[in-house]
Amino acid sequence: MKILALVKGPHYPSARYRVLQFERPLAERGFALTIREFPAGASGWRGILDVLPGQDAVWIQKKRLPGGRLSSLRRHGARLIYDVDDAVMLSSSGRTSWTRQGQFARTCEQV
Q: pLDDT per residue over 75-98, tens digit each?
């Protein structure tokens, strides 16, 4: 099984502890893990879509995706693995953010 992991960056503790440390154990069990940083702009996102064919799943680490990017992953037939290690649906102040909650809900819904 081929898995594309999208992380904020390899130097972030959440990426190291929740994704990168599993690269070798997954490989030993027959999984091919490709790790990429979330792209900043549209051209970078096109690069992600270019490597998507042939991947069995996309591991989204921590980030909420805007509707267009989420739709493009789903259109390409990617199974989504959503790894949440924080309350990503709340604002940094801990208050309810309807935008964040909506993005979180759309990412987690089954299609």
A: 877 788 888 766 666 666 767 777
Q: Please identify which residue in the block is written with the tokens 């970078």.
A: 44
Q: Could you write out the DSSP letters of every residue in 22-50? A: GHHHHHHTT-EEEEEEPPSSHHHHHHHHH
Which amino acid is present at 28? E
Q: Which SS3 state, helix, strand or coil, does residue 108 take?
A: helix
pLDDT at residue number 75: 80
| pTM for this prediction | 0.75
Q: Is 61 exposed, middle or buried (0-12, 13-18, 19+ CB in 10 A)?
A: buried
Question: What's the confidence (pLDDT) of residue 64?
Answer: 67
